[in-house]
Amino acid sequence: MSPDVTRTPLGPDLGRDPDLAAVAHVISAVRERQPLVHCITATVSMGIVADGLLAAGARPMMTETEAEAPVVTTVADALAINLGTLSTDAMKGIPATVAAAVRDGRRWVLDPTAIGLAPVRTPLARRLLDSRPVVVRGNASEVLALVGAGPGGRGADSLSAPAAAEEAARRVAERTGGAVAVSGAVDLVLDAGRLARVTRGTAMLTRVTGTGCLLGALTAACSVVAEDGFEAALAATVWMNVAGERAAERAAGPGSFRVELLDALDLVGKQVER
Predict the structure, then answer these.
(1) d(Cα 125, Cα 140) in Å, to the nearest integer?
(2) Which of 53, 206, 233, 251 could link 181 by a cystine bridge, Cβ 3.0 to 4.6 Å?
(3) Which domains, and CATH codes, for the chain?
């Protein structure tokens, strides 16, 4: 099992941050490759997902209809599926789009937002696990709900801590053969043989709509250049959390934090020593 990723002071010289140094090659590769990520995501979060990917150096594309999404995804480098604010178009378009990605050997990420009590998205999320996403990213309540071990959270809010979902996350990883990232005060990233705990970030990330959706899309971008799902999920988690820390240092509140987060996604890691 890999060592934990622990908090270190965030000073002006990011080259002294060992957490960033561990994932710097993935961050650098995303900026060099500029992967095109097809995002079927929550309507409420489309803006921050698109802007965040661009700030990180990737490129977003968003189409969800059954008629177009499976075709459009053939030119993308990765696919991110988020079940938040699930529309009728997305409900029909997601299975066909995932099937197209799997057919072409394209890596894809599942974010089972707000599953549990929801009667449509919950069975859909469970069925999609059979299409073997490279990463499943969600909060603890969502991961527990995936394996029928909990009722889900309150909407997108988790009622459980990430540690409570560790066994459920392992069950999901065994089923998909990929990695699982569980977000919370201490993030978990694991696959069949590795586990990392990421104790970075800021509570301000929970006060802006769509930061979790953005993390899922960023994970998809990282999956294009990473060795595997675990490396992609860990890189995206550290990248987002460190960006959040940097943004929180400069922000006066949630509104300015959103702007500072986009700037930080662009800047974080550019001074990491390799």
Answers:
(1) 15
(2) 233
(3) 14-267 (3.40.1190.20)
